Amino acid sequence: MPASQPQCIAMPVSQRAVRYHTCFPTVTNVSACIIPTMVPILMTLRDRIPSLRRLWIQWSTVEDQTGVHSIDCFQAASSLVDIGIFNEYRFVPVLLPVHQLTRYDIDCQLEEHIRVLKQTPNVIEARIDVTFDKEAWSDSLETVDLLRLRRLYISPAGALKYFKVPSLEELALDFSGEDILSLVRSLLDRSSCSLRRLCLQSPTAHTAIESLQYCPSLTELLILHDDGSRRDEINALISALTLSNYPGGLTLAPQLCLISFGCDYESYLDYEAYLEMLQSRRGAENCALQSAALLIVDGLKPESETVRSLHTLCQEGLDLLLLEGVKARDEMLPWDYSTLWT
Questions:
Q1: What is the DSSP letter of 143?
Q2: 203 with 174: CB under 8 angstroms?
Q3: Which domain of life is it from (predicted)?
Q4: With contact defined as beta carbons under 8 Å apart, do 171 and 201 qualify?
């Protein structure tokens, strides 16, 4: 491979392969699913990957984390800016050059998130996952100012109250029964930011509608649906977005340029209602709709007649993406700022 071409190390690698290389000057990506015998191999990378920009670490089983207290071979990686760590079973500290990170994707305790993010002045995109933290959060935790953050996913949404994000443009949330509306309002008021894009996972129709009404700056709405118990909610939202159905003859969020629906598991969408919603907004002078997506991983697909009508909308100028299966799932990953690592 030419020296100028970026390389990727996908672990596991053999210890022999590491031993006979004094340096990996062109390695830009490392993706590692760790088992205990690999920890000493990782340690041999210390100070030998000066071009490393992206790092992803995860663990195979809970047993694989036993006896591993920390990983400290990446702290001197002078080019590292994109980090993803999926602990899942137990938090294992990874020492990092946090001051230079621009993308942050870690699942750990809220206190650890706050400790690290206080030292990341350059972070632009963050995926903050505290779902496996079962401890009650202290009222004395400090609020973190993320001055340059533009894209944020956070779960559970209750953790929003610990952050101030004046530059935030895009927000993704997993609806989990919390009072998301008040949390989002508090975040926006506290931060004085204007959201452009909102992604909600399995929201109630009320939550989505109220969010659109509260944030007139929103131009992109993305709905991830993976909860069969909320099939009526997702179709109620589609109905509310249809011009002829909104109360009082008003238009819900006419400024929306993009409306996307993705079904990560079995689809429960009313496809005819979805088609009607798109047609109503494309035919209205006061609506800004330009792009849409319908992504279906599994379940019932639209009838052929509905598909033909959707393609007609494409011919009339609507930028419409229709995908199913694995391609649909891969397309949905960036909606909540996940990354497909290899």
A1: P
A2: no
A3: Eukaryota
A4: no
Which pTM does this prediction carry? 0.90
Q: How far apart are CA 29 and CA 52, in angstroms?
A: 6
pLDDT higher than threshold 90 for residue 240: yes
For residue 53, the model assigns a pLDDT of: 95
If one compares 266 and 234, the residue with the highest pLDDT of the two is 234
CB 265 within 8 A of CB 299: yes
Over the chain, what is the mean pLDDT?
A: 88
Percentage helix, strand, coil, to 5, in the chain? 30, 25, 45
Q: What is the residue type of 129?
A: D
DSSP secondary structure string for all residues of 293-321: EEEEEEEPPPPHHHHHHHHHHHHTT-EEE
Of 18-22, 153-157, 165-169, 297-301, highest mean pLDDT: 165-169
CB atoms within 10 A of CB 44: 14
Residue 10 Cα distances to 13, 62, 74, 99, angstroms: 7, 21, 16, 25
Contact predicate 84/107, CB 8 Å:
no
pLDDT computed for residue 123 by the predictor: 98
- What's the sign of the alpha-carbon dihedral 76, 77, 83, 84? negative
According to the model, what pLDDT value does residue 337 have?
95
Query: Residue 34 — very low, low, confident or very high, per pLDDT cuts 50/70/90?
Result: confident
Tens of pLDDT, residues 314-323: 999 999 999 9
Report the distance separating Cα 271 and Cα 205, nearest Å.
Answer: 17
Q: What is the mean pLDDT of residues 68-78?
A: 90
CA distance 32 to 275: 43
The phi, psi pair for 230, rounded to 5°, reads: -110, 25
Torsion of CA 263, 340, 259, 279, to 10 degrees: -70
Angstrom distance (rounded) from CA 246 to CA 258: 18
| Structural contact between residues 217 and 249, judged by C-beta atoms closer than 8 angstroms | no
- Domains in the chain: boundaries: 1-74, 102-195, 198-205+212-342
